[in-house]
From TrEMBL:
Protein keywords: ATP-binding, Cytoplasm, Ligase, Nucleotide-binding
Protein name as it appears in the record: Glutamine synthetase
Family indicated by similarity: Belongs to the glutamine synthetase family.
Keyword Ligase set for record: yes
Main location as per UniProt: cytoplasm
Source taxon at top rank: Bacteria
Protein's gene: glnA
Enzyme Commission designation: 6.3.1.2
Domain GS catalytic: 104-474
EC class: ligase
Keyword Ribonucleoprotein: no
Subcellular location as annotated: Cytoplasm
A GO molecular-function annotation: glutamine synthetase activity
Amino acid sequence: MSVQNVLQTIKENNVEFVDFRFVDLSGKAHHITLPAGEVDEDTFVNGVAFDGSSIPGFRGIEESDMVMMPDTEATYIDPFTSHVTMIVMCNIFTPEGERYERDPRSIAQKAEEYLQTTGIGTAAFFAPESEFFVFDDVRYESGQNTSFYSVDSEEAAWNTGRKEEGGNLGFKIRQKGGYVPVAPADTQQDLRSEICRLLEESGIRVERHHHEVATAGQAEINFRFDSLTKTADNLMKYKYIVHNTARQYGKVATFMPKPLFGDNGSGMHVHQSIFDGDTPLFYEKGGYANLSETALYYIGGILRHAPALIALTNPSSNSFKRLVPGYEAPVNLVFSKGNRSAAVRIPVAAVTPKGCRIEFRTPDSTANPYLAFAAMLLAGLDGIKNKIDPRALGYGPLDKNIYDLSDEEKKEIRSVPASLEEALDALEADCDFLLQGDVFTKEFIDNYLAFKRAEAKSVAIRVHPHEYSLYFDC
């Protein structure tokens, strides 16, 4: 869309305000809003200034001036504002007109540009399955002398005996019993349908929605794949619409990987493939799961670099409360067709040549999608360039339920890092694949490691409530 087309859309839709947005290191969106009358061609040429020193992980106060450069291909009308508002995604530039090397969205675009220079393919496509919980109440506190959290849901298994409902009507979701039940057990059909309606109005093609496995309102909505940066944009839009629709319904949505103890967590399984023009490069009839050698090498790159990747795809301490054996958590660094206990699954049901893809099941939605998708692509491309064969390295295929294997058999299977600190150590030791094509820079990775190590330490030094249960009477 040209600048003139955007300005015409503003006029035709009686837009009152234009909301310019960018994404920080953690994947959170920030915005500055201009009255529509202040937005003209110069706005798209010169950008919108902001203070980079106020954004964690960006710049120091001595070099704080930064510029948001609007992307005319990434606009939509905000469905939640009382005044008609157009949202415009932006890249971040320095005052000198250079791409800011810590801008996640620019890194995603550089990854796409790098793919085209390799001669391997012309486009990489991504489709995340970003799960979330919808609660009716959430409270938490972390201070010097207190630490707790409490969440509640009208669907939760622990509420079968609750009296406060004014007549308990039952039909609660059992623990690990929430996969696709109908109403009245599933109380959130209308909420998810409204989210889907708003997603489609905003330009996202929704494929399906359903209740997920856990009790207490776990949900999943799947939207159509797209190219790397566009999919990351769509995921930011998706999370914004989920959060705000839940708020309109008097509820609260969270993409936190493990908000509940003892039940399934929320993942972000990421489907991905590469095309050369209109030709799918991952399909070869008769191969294992109809995969081409290119696809197998891509898998090899993902699994070879998985410990380092996880620092970007699962970048929170809470991520590793989900990444434990059981609960369908994909902790095993193997690949397999149709097997949800493997880190890399190859979907085989109703798959066409153009739909042939691999699914990396380890990530979760604490990931910054621009960084995570870019890192996965670079790992896969490294596998293709260096012909990293996952079969030769002991990564499978393994077409068994891994959780049912004997202890001796499990010893042969490599696992994901056990903590955020371990993942960060792996990234520090194995980051060269991210430097290909100058997509990531060493300065960015060093800054990211320092940023995340400080976050991990802030959790590690705090007293955990369960420690009182274990040790107070020592």
